[in-house]
Amino acid sequence: MLELYILLVFMIIGAIIAVEVKDLLSSVVAVGAVGLALSIAFLILKAPDVAITQLVVELLALIILIRATLKRDLPFSTSGRWFFNTFVTAAFIAVFLMAAVMSLGDLPPFGYPLMRVAGTYLREGLLKTGATNIVAAVILDFRAFDTLGEATVLFAAVIGVLTVVRRTGRKSEGQVIEED
């Protein structure tokens, strides 16, 4: 439970930074950090499907928001930072691969299920729900809150993308707005 409180404090601080910072790109990165922390919170709460949905939507929205905030592409710096940039990139790739190897090493061998929940759904699904379609019974009865969470995440992402993609806001009658 302590992890959730730490993530909650991190998300609140990230949201405050996103609102208060003057640089728009820094604000977008802070919003991305809040979304990543929310995805981790979903993992801690044992909702991996909602966490994956949140992560995918967060990454796509972050890419769109970063692209929307940049007016033009940033030029490649050929100054003395090349070594530092290469080192940071290599370190990031090494940490990512190490985390992937550690995560994949904890998975059970192929063919041996990690949880036996699916068997319970198949044995008791018809008796407990009365639904003849076991897939609908699992999605709408057993996992209803996860499905609601996924739909909420996707709805929020669509609203966010529509807000960013919209070129012009409200204008007065007869007002001309110049496009980029």
Structural overview:
Helix 1 runs antiparallel to helix 2 and helix 2 (24-44) packs antiparallel against helix 3. The chain has seven helices and no strands. The longest helix is centred in the middle third of the chain and has 24 residues, at 82-105. The chain is mainly α and 180 residues long. The mean pLDDT is 79. The chain has one domain (2-71, 98-164). The protein has helices spanning 2-20, 24-44, 48-69, 82-105, 117-129, 134-142, 144-165.
Give the key terms.
180 residues, extended, mainly alpha, 0% strand
Topology of helices and strands:
Blueprint: H1 2-20, H2 24-44, H3 48-69, H4 82-105, H5 117-129, H6 134-142, H7 144-165
Helix pairs in contact: 1-2, 2-3, 3-7, 5-6, 6-7
